[in-house]
Amino acid sequence: MNNLATSSATAVPTHAEAPLVISAVAALEQDVRWQQASEAERVVLKRIAMQRDRWVAAKHAQQQAKALRTQADTVPADAPLMERLVVFAKLHPIATAAVAGLAVMVGPRKLMRYGGLALPLISKLKR
């Protein structure tokens, strides 16, 4: 456990094959240097360990957000139409803006007329 300066968390071996990861503060308090340090040194060492814990937490949060983003990029084929449209809009913002611009140019009256014609055809295709 003397490698506190190089790692953000120290692994403590257990009886299982996977190591148990403990926080940098807990690893610091188990370190020999912690017992030998003066009060001022302990304050600084604890601040450094807390910063390491924050970095590890931020890294885990970024990894989790990345996993959620990659999960949001895929939609099952049997998903509801609205969910598929939302994912399409997120993946293709330029095409979505073009369709919205076209809808504004066409106007609400013609849009309702064309929608009234297209919705029955779409509902037949879904069956």
Brief synopsis:
With 127 residues, this protein is mostly helical. The protein contains 6 helices and 2 strands, in the order ββαααααα.
Describe the model.
- The protein is mostly helical.
- The chain contains six helices and two strands; from the N terminus they run ββαααααα.
- The chain has helices at 24-30, 32-36, 39-72, 81-91, 93-106, 108-126; strands at 10-12, 20-22.
Find the count of extended strands (DSSP E, 2+ residues).
2
End-to-end C-alpha gap: 64 Å
Order of helices and strands: EEHHHHHH
Spatial strand order of the main sheet = 1-2
- The computed structural class is mainly alpha
List keywords for this structure.
two-stranded antiparallel sheet, mainly alpha, 127 residues
Helices and strands in order:
Blueprint: E1 10-12, E2 20-22, H1 24-30, H2 32-36, H3 39-72, H4 81-91, H5 93-106, H6 108-126
Antiparallel strand pairs: 1-2
